Request: fold
Amino acid sequence: GWYPAGDPASGRQRRPEAKRAAHPCLVAWPICLNLGCDGRKSFPDAMAKPTAQRGVGFLLESFTLLCICVMAFSIRLFSVLKYESVIHEFDPYFNFRITKVMTDAMLSKGFKAGIHEFWNFFDDRTWYPLGRVVGGTVYPGLMFTAGGMFWIAHLLNLPIQIVDVCVFTAPIFSANTAWAMYLLAKEVRGSGAGLCAAALVATVPSYISRSVAGSFDNEGIALFALTFTFFLYVKTLNTGSLAWATANALAYFYMVMSWGGYTFIINLIPIHCLASILMGRYHSRLYVAYCPLVVVGTLLAAVVPVVGFNAVKTSEHTASFAVLLIMQIMVAIKYLQNLLQPYPKIYRTAVALVYTSLLGFGVLLAALMATVVMASPTAGWSGRSLTLLDPTYASRFIPIIASVSEHQPPAWPSYFGDLHFSALLLPAGMIACLIPLTDASLFVLLYAVTSVYFSGVMVRLMLVLAPAACAVGGIALSEALAVFTASVKQKALVEGEGSKEEREEVVEASSSKKAMKKTGTGTRAAALRFDRKERTVPVGAAVWGLAGLLLLATFYVVHCVWISAEAYSSPSIVLTSRSATGLHVFDDFREAYAWLRYSTDEDCKVASWWDYGYQTTAMANRTVLVDNNTWNNTHIATVGRAMASPEYKAWKIFRSLDVKYVFVIFGGLVGYPSDDINKFLWMVRIGGGEFPEIKEADYLGDSGGYRIDAGASKTMLDSVMYKFSYYRFAEINDYGQGGYDRVRNTPIGRKNFKLKYFEEAFTTQHWMVRIYKVKDKVNREVLKQSEAMIEGQGGPAATPKRAMSSGANWRKAARKTRSKGNTPKKMFRRSSTLVSA
Reply:
């Protein structure tokens, strides 16, 4: 009996009786792990191994996988060991804040009440005055996962806080990802490839960057969901089991809940199915693997509020339905072929009828979908999807997407830094997937090719390339190790070393190979082993090859440990630097947020650029105008317009938004390059997209460059961003001159100036965060409005807007009103009425 899929190497189909009897390999699966039977070889060959040898092999493989998972978890703990157990970056602070709201409700009202609190939570601390409905605008998988882990720990009476659960969620799931990668590569090429791929993905720097302790972000669990979904799809391809197909749909549902990158899955799998059909590799197992995933997975995806009907309306999902229709056509043709094969004329007529009817239905369905899709100005594509298809789209039409550093194309050194050894194994693994080409290896090959393209568009999508590179790299590494070790072993057997059974095995395999060539008989398993043994190299080359692989693996581990400890473990809120005097710690961000939390009114509104919105709401507990969700481009453009405006105009904008404090990030003193001055041109571009009076050319120097020194433009020097950053900066005498910017390496252009409509409220120790208070100018504006009312001026001149924009001196207005018999007491009463109104 053969495996239900037949023999992929020879194209041999299963015997008819195999349809009625379960295959022995499936019964003996637990004891056949890489011990002569990988699910595709004959059962007697596996049982030929001694029981003790099978047990030792199973324990050794399990222990190796366990060590890989422990390594995946432990290599991500440098951030906790070097700093403390804190949340990193920006988005994780919002995720933590919402998770805490949910778990607090769980503890006080019960598990079900906590889930309801999450779905119904309205965040009034953000996007003032609009707010945000959280349950319908986030992917809830991360919050539910951390909340479920916390709830289980609470039931077990484990004294753990929700912040610790959030900090360690990503390292825990990195171990799960290593296990899922082992299953995927093993299903493609056996246990050796599985262990190699798991070891690579456990330490690959690209994945570490998003899964260190404290990185409580969607990608921390999404990579596990992605890899596990691919494993279940390949498993269904190999078995044709509807149970595995159902599990695949559930894994896809978890991926949809976890990350917006689920669209990569729902487009990659249709590409594989279409490629299989075009290559003549269609079979029933492909149908079973694909159709339940699309139908059940789409229904489950529509349940997630943030996705909803987008699962059937947007262009990102169109390919899956088109291939689903093609699948039905293939099934109908295959059925008619089996049913009407004795009647060729009737068969041709029936096939023509099927083609006509299904294609007509397909055209009608396509027209209906096109009508819905074309109603969108972007033809149903999201901005990020269009950026992937056209890398220049964001820079031309959506500057807010182009302004994010992780949306920029990666530099060539990024591939070496984020993949290292895997980048060298990637092309070799692609070639190894072709020899032989199976359904599973074709899928992994397409996964690698598409992820390489997407990683070249956005540096963020190096994260998607990492599992693909590790999967195909593990296959290449396993094949290379197999060839080198087989060469050394064969040399030892030829020279008389080794056991008698091993020498007899080589003789049996050689005779079986020759017998199959001559008569077509012989032990198939022995012949397959002989084929692998034939792929040998000279023993000297094998020894040097093993030494080279060992050396590269050593460099890989050293690189991964270093980059995890030094590059990716620093939390964005705590910065460090080393100099001749030792280690310097810059804790300015938490210092500023603590000042806002304890030194300002609880209901005051704080304005800043959108990068710092999540941290402000989570750590300072203050209401912000914009945050990292970036769903309202007009709101963000308004903040950009205010930052790019002169002081009086910016003051009017902030006053109209009820802002009490404004803060900027400044790195000119300590040399911190990610400050707001370096981001300022993006504020200008985003603001100019909504307000045409903001023009980027006005903020460039005479030479056309972006400057902050004496060659800067007057518009640049007058902007509040420049004034907020460099106010009193000239008092610092650095490099022998006051006001020297260490980031731009130049003295500032305007040094001695004062603020009229803002006042400095707080500046952190290293000047990295500068907070300004919006001055209260109510009395001046009330006098102008009261003058208009007293004099009886009607129409537009009496409106508050015209009164605020008037340039009349308030003292002249006061004298004029006094000359008309209006005493200060009367004016105060009228002013109080205006203020109350």
Q: What stands out?
A: DSSP finds 38 helices and 13 strands in the chain.
